[in-house]
Amino acid sequence: MDKIRAFIEEQFLVEFDDDDFPEDTNLFKEGVMDSFGYVQLCRFLEREFAITFTEAEMTGNVLVSLTQIRETVTAKLKQNG
């Protein structure tokens, strides 16, 4: 799951830390990620982890923080068994 953090930090030029920018920070509200970046993130996750996102998942605010992204990817990996 560190690949996800590394991707976000590299792509969106942020650095997560516990005090100033925790992993549960909403990346949209903080202006870190826009819709184009969101699509890039989804495509990265699909390629890297061999998962797919439904339209509802992509539009349902499930991938707005590093914490939520990790939880979603973990759940999808368990579904795929």
UniProtKB/TrEMBL annotation:
Signal peptide: none annotated. InterPro entries: ACP-like_sf, PP-bd_ACP. Residues 1-77 form the Carrier domain. It comes from the Bacteria. Gene3D superfamilies: ACP-like (1.10.1200.10). Pfam families: PP-binding (PF00550). This is Acyl carrier protein.
